Amino acid sequence: MAIQLSHCSSSSTTFSSLHHETSYFSKWVTEIHFRRQLRNHFELKSANGYPLNAVPMQDGSVAKPLEEEVPFPEFGETNSMLSITVVGASGDLAKKKIFPALFALYYEDWLPENFVVYGYARTKMTDEELRNMISKTLTCRIDSRENCQAKMEEFLKRCFYHSGQYNSPEDFLELNCKLKEREGGKLSNRLFYLSIPPNIFVDVVRCASTKASSATGWTRVIVEKPFGRDSDSSRELTKCLMQYLTEDQIFRIDHYLGKELVENLSVLRFSNLVFEPLWSRNYIRNVQFIFSEDFGTEGRGGYFDNYGIIRDIMQNHLLQILALFAMETPVSLDAEDIRNEKVKVLKSMKPLQLEDVIVGQYKGHSKGGKSYPGYIDDPTVPKDSVTPTFAAAALFINNARWDGVPFLMKAGKALHTKRAEIRVQFRHVPGNLYKRNFGTDLDKATNELVLRLQPDEAIYLKINNKVPGLGMRLDRSDLNLLYRTRYTREIPDAYERLLLDAIEGERRLFIRSDELHAAWTLFTPLLKEMEEKKIMPELYPYGSRGPVGAHYLAAKHDVRWGDLTGED
Predict the structure, then answer these.
(1) Is the peptide bond between 56 and the residue preceding it cis, with omega within 30 degrees of 0?
(2) I want to staple 448 with a disulfide (CB 3.0 to 4.6 A). Which of 32, 366, 397, 462 is the partner?
(3) CA–CA distance, 66 with 28 (Å, rounded to integer)
């Protein structure tokens, strides 16, 4: 079933022209707060315990470091107001991710002094009922501080609710009145988070932009995937949204781009001399992007059957990470420079061929006296469904850096383990002096860099090493950076980072419209061919390692899946 978009009227009122005049100032205000927080959280100190910018005096004392000179520092903090509206507030995503992420930002003092959170949905609910609902999912996840309960109560006092229809301008006008009352005449910055099905995106954006946008500050809208289900529906969705918003106001969120290890990918490559020279076809044999879940659709079968694993995971999460991994060095860390390079990668990719794709679907299985249902056993899934719950694909980039290097993707549900990782397998050592120690299987001697996104975030490099003792026996060892061991602070959830970026106007982890178009251009022909030919997925047991066909696909390109070696 294709996504039905609301009718787009070309005569609609667009966002206030004041947006362009005030957005620079409001952004400057929030960036002052952001820089101060960064200085407090990440101030570097020298061996003597003093800050690195401390000034030594003749008498041996140390002068206080010079403060950053910022004009009118307190003006923005006391005279602007951030209003966050979570549209679809009664849904699972809002309860389990968005409200907890906002509380975590508040708990860690990342939100501005003046802010308010509104929930908006069709469900009839009071302010107190909303607070009771979201309080069940709020946690002080970082540690057990004594003020946890107090901070939670303070946060809940800033949360309010407004019930209304998603296509009702009158209901959004009432929301606007409530927001204005809370803002109290302050400079107003408004963020709308659309935690709703895509078929009502346009209705909400039309109503919010014409009836509830800020008249003095910025208005931004976070849009959750799916962004269409093929090139045509995605293009139509973008066209409709842009009748009411500018590209700079639309924040298309992909929560995988907010994960710590994805954020660290560019740092690892561009700030370490040991890696950047190796980042090409000269040294890299293949790259693998692996996503697996150890559970099935479990109640989401109706939604999932309309999209399948390729649209749900590969076309967005894994492809976005691939683009970040393979891009050329950007001119700067500016959002547009980074996104420009990602688009170049996507446009350079070889069209996907059906023979380079394997699809599967999990079936029922019994293990240890327990029965696990198959995909079509879900009552919300048609019994004759051929929707894939597993897919593996080989992709290629036609440019000088990556010519001939297979980029393998694999994503599946109801597999033997839960994991998400990037695996970089390097080429064999030419004329390896120790090849006789590895026998005929040179793959055992291959260096491999692994970035494990979840669970237990880690970066490790597989190297060959001599086993201590007499004689010459080699094995593969790991140089391991396990995050939970090295860093005591718990890693923030991806939604925290992305929400904070949207508030700050930082767009580099959000998807631009031309990125989205390039991604769909790559996958749409394949998806249409699969649907026209009614490609039957290979069945695999619930809790297994997936279809056998995935191994043949990897072997076809002289690759061995790194997660199936039994070494991790």
Answers:
(1) no
(2) 462
(3) 21
Catalytic residue among 19, 162, 317, 517: 317
User: What b/e readout covers 384-395, taking b as 16+ CB neighbours within 10 angstroms?
Assistant: ebbbbbbbbbbb
Run of H or E residues at 118: strand 115-121
Rg (C-alpha) for the chain, rounded Å, is: 26
Residue 461 to residue 448: CA distance in whole angstroms: 6
Written as one letter, the residue type at 69 is: E
Is the peptide bond preceding residue 197 cis, with omega within 30 degrees of 0? no
Using alpha carbons, select from 316, 302, 309 the residue that is nearest to residue 537: 309
513 is written with which tokens?
Answer: 């419209």
Please state whether the predicted TM-score (pTM) of the whole model is above 0.85.
no
Round the average pLDDT of the chain to a whole number and report it: 82
Residue 354 to residue 348: CA distance in whole angstroms: 19
Burial class from Cβ neighbours inside 10 Å (0-12, 13-18, 19+) for residue 78 reads exposed
What is the DSSP-derived secondary structure letter of residue 218? -
Contact between 454 and 418 under an 8 Å Cβ cutoff? The reply is yes
Q: Has 317 been annotated as catalytic?
A: yes
What is the SS3 assignment for 418? coil
pLDDT tens per residue across span 295-316: 888 877 778 888 899 998 999 8
Q: What angle do CA 396, 232, 315 make, to 5 degrees?
A: 35
Q: What is the pLDDT of residue 461?
A: 84
Residues 6+ apart with CB under 8 A from 87: 120, 121, 166, 192, 193, 194, 195, 196, 204, 208
What is the tens place of the pLDDT at every residue in 476-515? 777 787 777 777 777 788 899 999 999 999 998 899 999 9
Number of Cβ within a 10 Å radius of residue 203: 19
The answer to whether 419 and 292 have CB atoms below 8 angstroms apart is yes
Q: Could you tell me which residues come within 8 angstroms of residue 420 by beta carbon, excluding any fewer than 6 positions away?
A: 256, 259, 290, 291, 292, 452, 453, 454
Give per-residue pLDDT as tens, 355-372: 999 999 999 988 878 888
H or E element in which residue 31 lies:
helix 18-42
- In three-state secondary structure terms, 462 is strand
Classify residue 205 by its DSSP letter: H
Residues 171, 180: Cα–Cα separation, whole Å: 14
Distance CA 18, CA 190 (A): 14
Q: Which helix (H) or strand (E) holds 339?
A: helix 335-347
The most distant pair of C-alpha atoms in the chain lies apart, rounded to whole Å, by: 84
Tokens of 339: 């996104």
Q: What is the DSSP letter of 349?
A: B
Give me the count of residues in the chain: 568
> Which structure tokens are listed for 274?
């040991």
User: Quick check: 6 pLDDT over 50?
Assistant: no
Q: How much helix, strand and coil, in percent to the nearest 5, is found in the chain? A: 40, 20, 40
